[in-house]
Specification:
The structure is a single chain. The chain is of the alpha/beta class. The chain folds into 2 domains: 187 residues, Alpha-Beta Complex (Quinone Oxidoreductase, Chain A, domain 1), CATH 3.90.180; 140 residues, Rossmann fold (3-Layer(aba) Sandwich), CATH 3.40.50.720. Helix content is 28%, strand content 27%. Strands 4, 6, 7, 10, 11, 18 and 19 form a 7-stranded mixed β-sheet that branches. The chain has a 6-stranded mixed β-sheet with strand order 2-1-5-9-8-3, with no helix packed on it. Strands 14-13-12-15-16-17 form a 6-stranded parallel β-sheet, sandwiched between helices. A hairpin with a 7-residue loop joins strand 1 and strand 2.
């Protein structure tokens, strides 16, 4: 079977013939239908997320269950599933307090590039090939933990369903679960890629009055208006903080979301806030980078700076719910899927993402 494999950092991804082992107890074999192309995959290529290589990339995807290992009860062959890249263990401290996004076991396995037992399911010429976040969606078939396979309704095309597996859950969840944006409020979104557009969708769903989108590409800012932005700022042309003040009666925004993962834009999001405002970091920065914020402003302005991981969601509940919102006409997925690619075009898909050509690119199998 074919898979898109990163053999070494800073190198083009290669589409190779790999072997896939059968699912072990508690695991599920999924025939992939579609996989989203995400900046997080690019972070791995650039070694900003230093995962082991060779690695099957991809963590956003949907498909059909082909077979299940012993003890699997949540899904059966023929089920349509969206894959969760944070499969909760149900046993660690964070799972016990219903913070499944912070599951210790899922985080440890993701860093190893392996399944829960520490072994891999992909092989290349007899050697182990690692797997991105226990999913590895850039493959014709993949094996995942049972907790990663979230059963969904069958009346949503799988290429659209794939989108809720990362970008939609992360963006909408950051607004609804993490920030808890109030109706009538003002929101700034810095970075309008695939996840940023879903932050905008989440703000609109929450009833925000002003949704200010910030980017450096006019093309992406036009897309932001399609998804609900009421104001746009090209950061190459205008001072972002001063313009946000102009749009908010010189108070600043009540909420700001950073969806790029750069220290300077994280600080910018914080500085766009009014007193008592909340900034949420969604973007993934390199582990060795630091953010500089005025220390006196923290107590004197009572702002909140926090982060969010996977939209702070419960995938088993939230992923199907997002598809229900789509079917009810309240969530845009068709508009989000800008272009589809063959697996062999994965490098082209990454370049289109970098060039701002797509809201979300999808690999179809």
């Amino acid at each position: 079977m074919k898979a898109a494999v990163l053999l070494d950092y800073e190198q083009p991804v290669q589409t190779l013939d790999v072997e896939l082992m059968d699912p072990k107890p508690g695991e599920v074999l999924v025939k992939m239908a579609a996989a989203g192309v995400c900046h997080s995959d690019l972070h791995v290529i650039k070694a900003d997320l230093p995962l082991p290589v060779p690695l099957v990339l991809g963590h956003e995807g949907a498909g059909i269950v082909e077979a299940v290992g012993d003890g699997v009860t949540r899904v059966k062959p023929g089920d349509h599933v969206v894959l969760s890249w944070v499969p909760e263990c149900g046993e660690c401290y964070f799972c016990q307090i219903s913070r499944y996004d912070m599951c210790d076991s899922a985080a440890a396995s993701a860093l190893m590039g392996a399944q829960r037992d520490g072994t891999t399911r992909f092989q290349l010429a007899g050697e182990e090939v690692y797997q991105f976040s226990m999913t590895g969606t850039f493959a014709e078939y993949t094996v995942v933990p049972e907790a990663s396979a979230i059963p969904i309704r069958k009346d949503v095309p799988l290429e659209l369903a794939a989108l809720v597996g990362c970008s939609v859950m992360t963006g909408v969840g950051a607004v609804i679960n993490t920030a808890k944006v109030r109706p009538g409020s003002s929101v700034v979104v810095i970075g309008t890629g695939g996840v940023g557009l879903n932050v905008i969708q989440g703000a609109k769903l929450s009833g925000a009055e002003k949704i200010i989108a910030v980017d450096t590409m006019d093309r992406k800012l036009e897309m932001a208006r399609t998804f609900g932005a009421t104001h746009t700022i090209n950061a190459r042309e205008k001072d972002v903080i001063m313009t946000v003040l102009d749009y908010t009666d010189q108070l600043g925004a009540e909420y700001a979301f950073e969806v790029i993962g750069r220290p300077e834009t994280i600080a910018q999001a914080y500085n766009c806030l009014r007193k008592t405002g909340t900034a949420v970091v969604v973007g993934i920065a390199s582990p060795n980078e630091e953010v500089c914020i005025n220390a006196f402003s923290i107590p004197s302005q009572a702002k909140t700076l926090t982060g969010t991981w996977y939209g702070q969601g419960n995938p088993r509940i939230d992923l199907p719910k997002l598809l229900d919102l789509y079917k009810a006409g309240k969530l845009k997925l068709d508009e989000l899927m800008t272009r589809t690619y063959d697996l062999s075009q994965v490098n082209e898909a990454f370049q289109d993402m970098l060039d701002g050509q797509v809201a979300r690119g999808i690999i179809k199998f």
